[in-house]
Amino acid sequence: QVQLVESGGGLVQAGDSLPLSCTAPDRTFSHYSMGWFRQAPGKEREFVAAISWSGSSTHYADSVKGRFTISRDNAKNTVYLQMNNLKPEDTAVYYCAAVLVLTDGVFYESEFEYDYWGQGTQVTVSS
User: What pLDDT, in 10s, does the model give residues 19-48?
Assistant: First the structure.
């Protein structure tokens, strides 16, 4: 079992930046592909960004491309999501997710590929 803990959510204004973090307090996830997802009220959970085991490969949803950056520090068991130029439509609960992979360069866009999830952190962007 991998416990994931997100942090960094909050209330910001449109155009602001906000960094999110996701840590695995009791396990190294250097062999895990990581993803960020979000769920807005009344909507299904959607993919935001993913990063491969080493961080060499990343992938973004079109809606956040150029504004969000996913990164990771395996020595700190932490994956980050830097969110810039936030928009009201970015308002959602943000979740990080992890899946054990056998090779580097692998990442997933589908939530069904991930085995472990954090509890989520709320991000609210006011206009």
Answer: 999 998 777 777 899 999 999 999 999 999
Q: Supply 3's token pair.
A: 């416990």
pLDDT at site 25: 78
Among left, alpha and beta (phi > 0; psi -120 to 50; other), residue 31 is alpha
The residues that bridge with 13 in the sheet, in sequence order, are 126
The DSSP symbol for 65 reads T
Q: Of 75, 65, 58, 70, whose CA–CA distance to 24 is shortest? A: 75
Neighbours of 104 (CB within 10 A): 14
Q: Residue 86 is encoded by which pair of tokens?
A: 């936030």
The neighbouring-strand residues paired with 83 are 18, 68
- 61-106 tens-digit pLDDT: 999 999 999 999 999 999 999 999 999 999 999 999 999 998 888 9
Measured distance CA(126)–CA(108) in Å, rounded? 30
With a CB cutoff of 8 Å and minimum separation 6, the contacts of 7 are 20, 21, 22, 23, 121
Residue where the block lists tokens 């250097």: 30
